[in-house]
Amino acid sequence: MPMEPFFVAHGIEASYGRLQVLWGVDLELREGESAVLLGSNGAGKTTLLKALLGLRPVLQGEILLAGQHMEHLRTDLRVQRGIHYMTELGVFPNLSVDENLQVGGLGLHHHDLRQRIGNLYETFPDLGRLHGAPAASLSGGQRKMLGVAKAIVVPPRLLLMDEPSAGLSPRYVSEVVATLRGLHEDGITMLIAEQNVKFLEIADRAYVLDGGRISFAGSVVELEANDAVRQAYFGVGGH
Ligand code: ADP
Fold it and tell me: 87 CB under 6 A from ligand 1?
């Protein structure tokens, strides 16, 4: 029998009141894979990530992590089981870099927390240098790094990221992509919701969400060969 993928979302449907915005969404990831979820504004990317984490109820569908059903669990229990979520809003501007990381590591014993934060300062030297500075004083790129670092203080089994490029200039986008490449090389399983095709550089597979439905699922090579996707995301027509 083929091995069950590490993470599976099957037939996810979600709505805001009577407005249904996700329709039978299927996704899967093998352990250590990274997937990019492309979709224009309003396609349903944020809603999908929230549904996977339990921040939006699912009307229908199954969510499995390492074979265990998640769809009926509260958000805090999904986080405990290793589904972490990175958004820009996850960084507290008035807290220092170090305090933000301590919040990310709530529940760890003090010694483990300090050790883990020390390791993160090696991975993110900018954050180490600025450990006492308020998050509000960081550059846009550094704040994203802090958001990523905060989401992985406790190592995740699956890291969900909502538009890590939002609001960043191209130089900072490249820095964030490089950071995520490092996490990918460390074997972290990731789902990155993005409009920026640069994140495909680090993707093992790609999904396109269109009007709340998956309109493409496949490898990045297949995605780049798909004419409709090329027109929508790469600004180029057919062959
Ligand atoms: P994306 O992240 O791809 O931009 P969203 O998941 O934010 O898309 O939005 C998907 C759809 O759900 C859009 O039509 C949007 O208008 C609608 N929507 C998002 N948030 C709300 C909300 N809080 N109340 C009602 N409708 C919402």
Answer: no
